[in-house]
Amino acid sequence: MDFIDQHRNVHGVEPICKVLQVAPSGYWRHAALRREPHRRCVRAIRDEALGPQIERVWNSNMQVYGADKVWRQLAREGTSVARCTVERLMRQQGLRGVKRGKVVRTTISDSRAPCPLDRVNRQFRAERPNQLWVSDFTYVSTWQGWLYVAFVIDVFARRIVGWRVSSSMHTDFVLDALEQALYDRQPERNRSLVHHSDRGSQYVSIRYSERLGEAGIEPSVGSKGDSYDNALAETINGLYRAELIHRRAPWKTREAVELATLEWVSWFNHHRLLEPIGYIPPAEAEANYYRLLASQATTVEV
Questions:
Q1: Would you give the distance in Å from CA 140 to the centre of its chain?
Q2: Weakest-pLDDT range from 16-20, 114-118, 153-157
Q3: Average pLDDT of the chain?
């Protein structure tokens, strides 16, 4: 249609349509609807209104959402639309969600180090915040060399409660992520908190174990040779790499990675819809828990 619009004054509509082997009536219908948009079908009018909304949701969520999460976010905002419609319009607009890559092994276990028991046994569920934390780290390639990014995740709402970027894999950097989690969450000593990790030498080191003991946290380490021993933390690592690291590569400096990670963690905690907790953000899931807790306490008092 655009080609005919551009050349109709020179060659005429019918000759162009004959060469292109399209019906002139189709073009004239297109031209008439363009002059009088209100005569378009309901679907076309609806599509035109939905297009900018879909693009806005996709852009405001770091351009990582696929059709399913865009559809669910629109529903949260009060826009009722079929999922297949969102998928069709995203395809027309060239909008795509990110795809997860392969899991890369980063754990280097220390067979000589004593390991705590596995208190989780692949059951990554918690009934309240600060009941179970999981930790792991991943790597990022930059022009300045390799960087390593550690995360501490609260299992209840999958919220990232601590993270750190480092140029080395020494124990200090995973300790820094733990310290941030302790400062941010202030877990109560009288309520049991379990910290789970894989058998990486950083997590079973004496210094890390001592810090967990000082904070009154029970350590837990996954079983040897079990690819699912720390699956939830590896899932968060996978999302981080797919949604941020791979999309924005190449990375030049450590500062760029740290700033982007800060942005991603904030978005992840406060805006990203997570399927395991009912397609709501982690912060909202925790807020709902504490709101329910306060409501129950008020009911008991009355």
A1: 17
A2: 114-118
A3: 87
Tell me the average pLDDT across 224-253: 86
Cβ-based neighbours of 263, under 8 Å, separated by 6 or more: none
Based on the number of CB atoms within 10 Å of its own CB, is 55 exposed (0-12), middle (13-18) or buried (19 or more)? middle
Distances (CA, A) of 69 to 49, 65, 75, 83, 235: 19, 6, 10, 9, 17
Q: Is the dihedral of CA 146, 232, 87, 46 positive or negative?
A: negative
Q: What is the DSSP letter of 100?
A: -
Strand locations in the chain, DSSP E?
Answer: 132-142, 145-154, 159-166, 194-197, 218-221
Neighbours of 215 (CB within 10 A): 15
Write the CB contacts of 109 (distance below 8 Å, at least 6 apart in sequence): 198, 199, 200, 201, 204, 224
Interstrand relation of 194-197 and 132-142 (parallel, antiparallel or unpaired): parallel
Inter-residue contact 296 to 288 (CB < 8 Å): no
**Cα–Cα distance for residue pair 247/268, rounded to 1 Å:** 16
* Residue 27 exposure: Cα atoms within 13 Å on the Cβ side: 20
Identify which of 172, 175, 183, 150 has the alpha carbon closest to the alpha carbon of residue 257: 150
Instruction: Find, among 16, 94, 2, 104, the residue nearest to 55 by Cα.
Output: 94
Let me know: does 294 contact 302? Beta carbons within 8 Å. Answer: no
Reported pTM: 0.82
- 81-87-92 Cα angle (round to 5): 115
Q: How far is CA 21 from CA 13, 14, 25, 224, in A?
A: 12, 10, 12, 67
Q: Which pLDDT score is estimated for 114?
A: 54
Q: Which has the closest alpha carbon to 109: 14, 21, 4, 197?
A: 197
How far apart are the C-alpha atoms of 274 and 72, rounded to whole Å? Answer: 11
What pLDDT band is residue 84 in, cutting at 50, 70 and 90?
A: very high
